[in-house]
Design goal:
Layout lengths: L7 H30 L7 H30 L11 E4 H10 L2 H6 L3 E4 L6 E5 L1 H18 L5 E8 L6 E8 L5 H4 L10 H6 L7 H12 L3 E7 L4 E8 L3 E2 L1
Parallel strand pairs: 2-4
Antiparallel strand pairs: 1-3, 3-8, 4-5, 5-7, 6-7
Helix pairs in contact: 1-2, 3-5, 5-8
Length: about 240
């Protein structure tokens, strides 16, 4: 039996990363070609340009995930420096993140709905990192939700603890109770997710956990209700305010 190659997991991760980023970039190239050769009607040019921008932003999101993972891997036990002194307005960041999935959501009849856009809950930290959290979660939700369903974002203050709770829920195949304990580990994807989409980096939720817990001293957890087929990612912050 040949010796186990410890580099194989990294190679699989790299292969999945390449596959994930090539797809949106190929879409961008195709759209640009159509715009250049004039095959896109003038009334649809703005729509196609917006879709192209969303694809590019999605590609950037994937690269950022890999960058965060690489930075942490190179400095185990020590977080790379980030400016965590800014105001992160939660509704604003949710809306900004959701915009990047508008086109892919429309194609599957999926809408991202923020139930309370008016209350300006905020935490102190990095808006860029918190936006990345929502983008990673929305990416999973739009990819794996049942077509024609809704992704809901609910914010509220827990009466007992006074913690700010942010719940992102979608309808679709979830994960087992055993998988819920490892779903935030690097490179892990649920068995149902693997059935629907063969490849994926498995870094999205891991990056969410790192950003929320290590950088912003919050908590993140995932649960799945088989009765309602509802996947819920729950973020919890003890320090927050209304701006």
């Amino acid at each position: 039996m040949p010796p186990e190659d410890s580099s194989l997991p990294d190679l699989r991760l790299l292969a999945n990363f390449v596959h994930q980023i090539v797809n949106p970039l190929n879409g961008v190239i195709g759209t640009v070609d159509n715009l250049i050769d004039g095959s896109v009607p003038s009334e649809k040019r703005e729509q196609r340009l917006r879709a192209t921008r969303a694809q590019l932003e999605f590609a950037v999101m994937i690269v950022r995930n890999l960058a965060y993972f690489t930075e942490q891997s190179l400095t185990p036990g020590k977080l790379p420096q980030r400016d965590l002194s800014k105001t992160c307005v939660i509704p604003q960041l949710v809306i900004e993140a959701a915009l990047f999935f508008q086109e892919s959501g429309i194609s599957r009849g999926i809408k991202i709905e923020l139930t309370d856009p008016r209350t300006q809950y905020a935490i102190t930290g990095s808006p860029e990192l918190i936006r990345q959290v929502f983008m990673n979660i929305f990416d999973n939700a739009v990819k794996y939700s049942d077509a024609g369903t809704e992704v809901t974002v609910k914010t509220h203050v827990q009466k007992k603890t006074k913690n700010l709770i942010i719940e992102i829920s979608n309808i679709g195949p979830g994960f087992t109770s055993e998988e819920s304990r490892t779903i935030f580990d690097p490179g892990v994807r649920g068995s149902e997710a693997r059935k629907l989409i063969a490849s994926g980096t498995g870094l999205g939720l891991y990056i969410c956990k790192m950003i929320v817990e290590d950088y912003h001293k919050g908590e993140v957890e995932a649960e799945y209700s088989r009765a309602t087929r509802t996947v819920t990612i729950r973020l919890r912050f003890s320090k927050w305010r209304i701006v």
